[in-house]
Amino acid sequence: MEAAALLDASLDELCAEARRLREEGHGSLVTYSPKVFIPLTKLCRDVCHYCTFARPPRRGERAYMTIDEVLAVARAGAERGCREALFTLGDKPELRYRVAREELAAHGCGTTLEYLGRAAEAVLDETGLLPHLNPGVMTVEDIRRLRPVSASMGLMLETTSDRLSARGGPHFGSPDKLPAARLETVLGAGEARVPFTTGILIGIGETRAERIDALVAIRDLAERYGHVQEVIVQNFRAKPGTRMADAAEPPLEELLWTIAVARILLGAGIDDWGGVSPVTIDHVNPEAPWPDLERLRAATEGRSLQLAPRLPVYPEWIDGAWIDPRVMPAVLRASDAAGLAREDGWSPGETGAVPFTPRDALPVPTRDELGEDELVRLLCARGEERQRVFAAADHLRREVCGDEVSYVVTRNIQYTNVCYFRCGFCAFSKGKLAANLRGAPYLVPHDEIVRRVREAWQRGATEVCLQGGIHPAFTGEYYESVVEAITEAVPEIHVHAFSALEVWQGAATVGLPLDAYLARLRDAGLGSLPGTAAEILDDDVRRVICPDKVTTAQWLDVHDNAHRVGLRSNVTMMFGHVESPRNWARHFLRAREQQGRSGGFTEFVPLPFVHMEAPMWLKGQARSGPTWGETLLVHAVARLALHPCITNIQASWVKLGPEGIAAALRAGVNDLGGTLMNESISRAAGARHGQEMPPERMEELIRANGRVPRQRTTLYGDAPEERRRASFGAPALAEPVNPPVRDAGLRAPPRLVRPGFTAARAS
């Protein structure tokens, strides 16, 4: 619809078109920003005739908040779950008031903007809240100086009408309200690559045509630079004590007309309620208290919309091109997989209560072969829609698996923590390339591996699971020798061993094709492969988190060949770091497609990223694991996405803890994995849920949640009764022996084999 035609269109017609654009752009999502309001100074050189924020100096009052006062407000907000620190202040008060100049000088600053930068830096460093700066008119140089201490900035354009700045107009005597100056600031933010908020103010004497002119000006700058993330339509309110106290306020019809026209002119975008603070008042509109969040949620969901918290920077702008490297770590740590604000304080591996448990609800109909876009929508569900996803997954689980919950008595053996690969998420491996050494590098000799296997067998295990780092001296013969030693000592135990990376590296070092090498491992006694090293089966993500690891195609090729030589495997997905729900959806689809080709996956295992000691998180390059809602959704949507080809969905008690497991059992999960006996990888990353979940505790947990425990084998048969009896009341484990790696006397070859993108670049 052309701008001129908007003036003649009916309100109903405009609103209908605006709703269509909203739904087309972002579906049912409505956001708000949990924030604190920090009025750094209320002095201003402008005299807008409707403003109650700005005021002249008062005897005995400071011109500026102190840094300690700023931090006190920000810390109170952080404790209440806020993500944004909104700095609002008058425009250049030092140009009008001597008290402002003197106080700035006492702080060692020459301008208000310099002091603002210092305050924003303190908030960012001390509290993790993300500063959003509204300091008024700025030059592009001003904006560039503030960019390293802010996630976003803003300035209300208000109007493009010069006549409102003439004598008798609301902006008379306010040099910073001249439209040209404000447009220059919006332009400067684009040149400085800063995510920017702007908007218009209606009801101050402008015409509808002038509103359209202002919105078109914003649109033109947004199209030129791509930086305008949010446009506010603000209605004038007559406030006592101002020159416009008796002016008429715009009626609701005018507000609706302007909102609809803004949507049509600016295109599809996120609908937003603006900021909501549990701590501070709105110092610009103090007469309008913040809405109660639950009332806001009820009002939103009552229109079949989903309410979600966001950051001051919108998801599309969370990118190295838009966010300063100094600010990006705080942005990532505050964000969820969709680029919105984390909605809870839960992280995988930590102890404590989970934020919520799925409740009983009527299941929604399900069908096979959900596509990528459908999966993304399910993975982004919130509110009641999320509960329907959980209910659908639980209903399907009951149909397919009944009420049995299975687990396997197994022992994990990580035979070395030395690795020459450089996965950014791994806190387990040790070596020259590791970013953060935690404990001495070790290599478990064969006799100690065999001792642990015998001990596991005596404690009722049916499986031993082996994985480790890849020592530079390892070859395919090493992996084969480990399997042979175990099989010779305990022939009855199932050897579940070696990730796709270990298999690929082993085959490459002995010069065999994958199928031939896997057949050798099978003949040596290998029973199945774990599905680890999958991380996210999307190379856009793998290039970031594990650039020298196997590619998506190589991972799938290893498992395809394993299935074809008679070895079963599972498929895992590590999520909550740098990826998005669309990457999750692609992972599901690739696993489903592979299962259709080779049919050898026994289960799907979501593995929430444990961030605490991960090198890329410590460097500020990853999120703090998935949120609790995302974690449950991944388990639930996996059930729906992989049906009917993969029927077992496993939850990791090491990552979720007992309370998390209880909730996951109501979201499509039917398997709790292994008892483990020794767990090192998640604990190295910071998980705190222990090394073993013995059968007694496992079955107690399952029964407490109204399910029936079943001790299984690796391939989902029933555990033999003799094994089951041996697993209960098992004696304590002897202390494992992890000799220093130097004792092994291994020597690395002159050239190491590498799959993946690094190898492709090298060639």
What can you tell me about this protein's structure?
The chain has 763 residues and is an alpha/beta fold. It has 2 domains: 3-334, Aldolase class I (TIM Barrel, Alpha-Beta Barrel); 372-729, TIM Barrel (Alpha-Beta Barrel), CATH 3.20.20. Helices cover 39% and strands 13% of the residues. The protein starts with a helix and ends with a helix. Mean pLDDT is 91; it is low at 431-437.
Structure, briefly:
The chain is an alpha/beta fold and 763 residues long.
Keywords for this structure?
763 residues, alpha/beta, TIM Barrel, 2 domains, eight-stranded parallel β-sheet, six-stranded parallel β-sheet, 27 helices, 17 strands
Summarize the topology.
Blueprint (H helix, E strand, L loop, with lengths): L2 H4 L4 H16 L2 E13 L25 H13 L4 E6 L8 H9 L5 H16 L2 E5 L5 H7 L5 E3 L24 H13 L4 E7 L5 H18 L2 E8 L16 H15 L4 E6 L16 H9 L4 E4 L18 H7 L37 H8 L3 H19 L2 E5 L1 E5 L31 H13 L4 E5 L8 H14 L4 E4 L2 H11 L3 H11 L1 E4 L9 H7 L6 H13 L3 E8 L5 H18 L2 E8 L6 H4 L9 H15 L10 H12 L6 E4 L6 H5 L9 H10 L3 E5 L8 H7 L28 H7 L1
Parallel strand pairs: 1-2, 1-7, 1-8, 2-3, 3-4, 4-5, 5-6, 9-16, 9-17, 10-11, 11-12, 12-13, 13-14, 14-15
Helix pairs in contact: 2-9, 3-5, 6-7, 7-8, 8-9, 12-20, 13-22, 14-15, 15-16, 15-17, 16-17, 16-19, 17-19, 19-20, 20-22
